[in-house]
Hints:
Layout: E1 13-16, H1 26-39, H2 49-52, H3 57-67, H4 74-92, H5 104-113, E2 118-121, H6 127-133, E3 142-144, H7 157-165, E4 173-177, H8 180-189, E5 192-196, E6 207-209, H9 217-221, H10 226-230
Parallel strand pairs: 1-2, 1-4, 2-3, 4-5, 5-6
Helix pairs in contact: 1-4, 3-4
Bound molecules: 6-O-phosphono-beta-D-glucopyranose and magnesium ion.
6-O-phosphono-beta-D-glucopyranose binds at residues 18-19, 26, 29, 52-57, 60, 85, 122-126, 146, 179.
Amino acid sequence: MVSMVGRRDPALGAVFDLDGVLVDTARFHFAAWQKIAAEHGFSLGDEVAESVKGVSRDEALAIVMRSGSIRLSAEEAARAASRKNDLYLETVKDLNENALLPGAAAALRLLHSRGIPVALASASKNARPILQSTGIAGYFSAIIDGTVVSRAKPDPEIFLAAAAALDLEPGECVVFEDAVAGIEGARIAGCRVVGIGDATVLVDADSVAESLADVDWGAEFGHADVVKEIR
Ligand code: BG6
Ligand code: MG
């Protein structure tokens, strides 16, 4: 039986969210939703930005329309979701490695050089092309995305699938997440979670770093020289 790794034990695998953790795309998702809201006659306040992070496209649409007190038929909802995706894809069509967030490339290089397996756990159905265009696809042993899971974060399904794909117990993995919904899902799955972003928002994470460049890699993965190399 594999025992659960305690808080201070080194993790054996890393599970990354994509949008807002590795790649600077969360703002493009939100900008597309703001445009959709405007097209439906209301303005989407910045306070909605946190709640659409991490959740599936359909769930985000429901949140956006609720905030504008708009009810859509199933057909209208499908059209709005598809239009949002078109707007989003337009903004990411020329994405390259410059869109990687601080510390992302260095973290992936470091984990790779240490033989620590890495999985993606992203709700996005656009994850694979974005990994390709930013040049980081090759670092992932497993890609669990919105095309393969049926239940949206905060359901733990995506994190359980990511750990299983790495052949690890959830408790042996550290998840890197910028979304409240993702942190909740990762915790329910039994993973350790490093929140990436604002500590006053990501209150349920085990620890919070402003970006991947600020993570204490040595503490997470137990290599004495990790911190030195990542900077
Ligand atoms: C997540 C984003 O990664 O993917 C969410 O944080 C987004 O904002 C979700 O709704 C689904 O993305 P897509 O690309 O399938 O519309
Ligand atoms: Mg995210």
